[in-house]
UniProtKB/TrEMBL annotation:
<feature type="binding site">
    <location>
        <position position="311"/>
    </location>
    <ligand>
        <name>ATP</name>
    </ligand>
</feature>
<feature type="binding site">
    <location>
        <position position="307"/>
    </location>
    <ligand>
        <name>ATP</name>
    </ligand>
</feature>
<keyword id="KW-0808">Transferase</keyword>
<feature type="binding site">
    <location>
        <position position="12"/>
    </location>
    <ligand>
        <name>sn-glycerol 3-phosphate</name>
    </ligand>
</feature>
<dbReference type="InterPro" id="IPR000577">
    <property type="entry name" value="Carb_kinase_FGGY"/>
</dbReference>
<feature type="binding site">
    <location>
        <position position="409"/>
    </location>
    <ligand>
        <name>ATP</name>
    </ligand>
</feature>
<feature type="binding site">
    <location>
        <position position="133"/>
    </location>
    <ligand>
        <name>sn-glycerol 3-phosphate</name>
    </ligand>
</feature>
<protein>
    <recommendedName>
        <fullName>Glycerol kinase</fullName>
        <ecNumber>2.7.1.30</ecNumber>
    </recommendedName>
</protein>
<dbReference type="Pfam" id="PF00370">
    <property type="entry name" value="FGGY_N"/>
</dbReference>
<feature type="domain" description="Carbohydrate kinase FGGY N-terminal">
    <location>
        <begin position="4"/>
        <end position="249"/>
    </location>
</feature>
<feature type="binding site">
    <location>
        <position position="242"/>
    </location>
    <ligand>
        <name>sn-glycerol 3-phosphate</name>
    </ligand>
</feature>
<dbReference type="Pfam" id="PF02782">
    <property type="entry name" value="FGGY_C"/>
</dbReference>
<comment type="function">
    <text>Key enzyme in the regulation of glycerol uptake and metabolism. Catalyzes the phosphorylation of glycerol to yield sn-glycerol 3-phosphate.</text>
</comment>
<dbReference type="InterPro" id="IPR018483">
    <property type="entry name" value="Carb_kinase_FGGY_CS"/>
</dbReference>
<feature type="domain" description="Carbohydrate kinase FGGY C-terminal">
    <location>
        <begin position="259"/>
        <end position="448"/>
    </location>
</feature>
<feature type="binding site">
    <location>
        <position position="81"/>
    </location>
    <ligand>
        <name>sn-glycerol 3-phosphate</name>
    </ligand>
</feature>
<feature type="binding site">
    <location>
        <position position="12"/>
    </location>
    <ligand>
        <name>ATP</name>
    </ligand>
</feature>
């Protein structure tokens, strides 16, 4: 009987589980979507029980597909990052819904911390910016809005975790309260140069240390599953935030290698090796991975709306039935119309970091129809990536000659990938394995189990599906980019002052 690693990929819109064999072949995929809650403007929540139940159901199906838990050499977990859960240590029950990374409810708290002069300390210690995106202000919000929670946290009765920690706690029957360093680096509470929780940051954000999990390497012993869950214990050997897992799955192990993942949001990650580069262009410095105690850093550009714009076409405007309809419609759009969408549905992320602006459409005419809106939505993802690449070029000039490795659900769309190459003016490589996030998580667990070899050998197995070469003439590219920047300027809440 074949042996596998089980990868659990807990994303923003769905929980997936799949099997990866010794030859990195993926099979046995199970996936469950779950409900998005939008209780107020700019608020986004998930029900932690639904996250657990969908993850568990997917994992159980995958284990059954493997012929039982005895054929699983280890479990790797990857997850939507920053999303914040606080639960009772005694019962494992969450005291509030998960506050999702996209949620903007703590914009005022971030502004107050900035006015109080904490922005530079946060930037220096964490590599992040003061923005509601990260976990710290979400934790404080829950403690200040759920009756008795702050006192209970001080007493050690409650536990905080990003989704990796929450799943680990549940999978191990409450025996493990740990996270990995990539997820920890997104809380705004970790000093990314020491790799430890920072008392200074805990004081700034008013978060009790008693809430926090232990911080571990990406491949290590995270404990074993409760035997009742899969009919016997299985070791959990790998954990990473989904964007870092995708960086590993894309084998971006060398400094200068760049990947961008197009899921609900889009996250471009550039490996910067042992150097933690402080961005001058409003990108994030973050941990790419840590193996055997050796830390590798990255620069990251984070965009909040990518595939979510396609979901808006489908679920909001109802002008497409399936996400895959959007590409052919964009291809059929009227070439004489310049419709531009600024998809600031929850504000804008890097490099603008404007939590208060909201989305806008420009250039509508009486002839504008679904095709033009579909093109505007897909093109907005490419243009946002252009802004990230420009910021990276500013921080690391050597990126100019780079190739972008693209993945995530939206990478299936040929029109988007071609337009991306055209706008960025660099080749875009799509690998055969589009499930790079799960592959990265599986690789970590397989490495820990001795099932997979060292990263250098894993990197030789990366395989190209298709390279998209830039084809657009420079004047056309420049015209589209100029229109985009004009549209962004008119959307920003600060009256149009551009950061670059
Ligand atoms: N063929 C396609 N064309 C355009 N967008 C797509 C296509 N297939 C999937 N998507 C988009 O990709 C996203 C799903 O990607 P996925 O990597 O599963 O996201 P997540 O991990 O954030 O849940 C959805 O937002 C969906 O709208
Ligand atoms: O669910 P995804 O793939 O859009 O990823 C979410 C990110 O981890 C948020 O930082």
């Amino acid at each position: 009987m074949a042996r596998y690693v089980l990868a659990i990929d807990q994303g923003t819109t769905s929980s997936r589980a799949l099997l990866v064999d010794a030859d990195y072949r993926i099979s046995g995929i199970a996936q469950h979507e779950f409900k998005q809650h939008f209780p107020n403007s700019g608020w986004v929540e998930h029900d932690p029980e639904e996250i657990w139940e969908t993850s568990l159901a997917a994992a159980r199906t995958a284990v059954a597909n493997a012929g039982g838990g005895r054929n699983i050499v280890g479990i790797g977990i990857s997850n939507q990052r920053e999303t914040t859960v606080i639960w009772e240590r005694a019962t494992g029950r969450a005291i509030y819904n998960a506050i999702v990374w996209q949620d903007r409810r703590t914009a005022d708290q971030c502004e107050a911390l900035s006015v109080a002069g904490h922005g530079e300390t946060v930037r220096e210690r964490t590599g992040l910016v003061l923005d509601p995106y990260f976990s710290a202000t979400k934790i404080a919000w829950i403690l200040d809005h759920v009756a008795g929670a702050r006192q209970r946290a001080e007493n050690g009765e409650l536990a905080f975790g990003t989704i990796d920690s929450f799943l680990l706690w549940r999978l191990t029957g409450g025996r493990q309260h740990a996270t990995d360093i990539t997820n920890a680096s997104r809380t705004a509470l970790l000093d990314i140069r020491t790799g430890k929780w920072s008392d200074e940051l805990l004081a700034i954000f008013n978060v009790p240390r008693a809430l926090l999990p232990e911080v571990k390497d990406n491949a290590c012993d995270f404990g074993s599953t409760d035997p009742e869950i899969f009919g016997g214990p299985i070791r959990i050997g790998g954990m990473a935030g989904d964007q870092q897992a995708a960086t590993i799955g894309q084998a971006c192990f060398k400094p200068g290698m760049l990947k961008s993942t197009y899921g609900t949001g889009c996250f471009a990650v550039l490996n910067t090796g042992a150097t933690c580069i402080a961005s001058r262009n409003r990108l994030l410095s973050t941990v790419a991975y840590q193996l055997d105690g050796v830390r590798t850093y990255a620069l990251e550009g984070s965009i909040f709306i990518a595939g979510a714009a396609v979901q808006w076409l489908r679920d909001g405007l109802k002008i497409i039935a399936h996400a895959s309809d959007s590409g052919p419609m964009a291809a059929a759009a009227d070439a004489n119309q310049d419709v531009t969408l600024v998809p600031a549905f929850v504000g804008l992320g890097a490099p603008y970091w404007d939590p208060d602006c909201r989305g806008a459409l420009f250039g509508l005419t009486r002839n504008t129809g679904p095709n033009e809106l579909a093109r505007a939505a897909l093109q907005s993802v490419c243009l946002q990536t252009y802004d990230l690449l420009q910021a990276m070029r500013g921080d690391c000039p050597e990126v100019s000659g780079a190739v972008l490795r693209a993945d995530g659900g939206m990478a299936a769309c040929n029109w988007t990938m071609q337009r991306l190459a055209d706008i960025l003016d660099i080749p875009v490589d799509r690998p055969t394995a589009l499930e790079t996030t799960a592959l990265g998580a599986a690789y970590l667990a397989g490495l820990q189990a001795g099932f997979y070899p060292a990263p250098e050998e894993f990197a030789t197995r990366w395989a190209l599906d298709r390279r998209f070469e830039p084809q657009m003439e420079a004047p056309e590219r420049q015209r589209i980019i100029a229109r985009w920047h004009d549209a962004v300027r008119r959307t920003l809440s600060n009256g149009g002052a551009m950061p670059m």
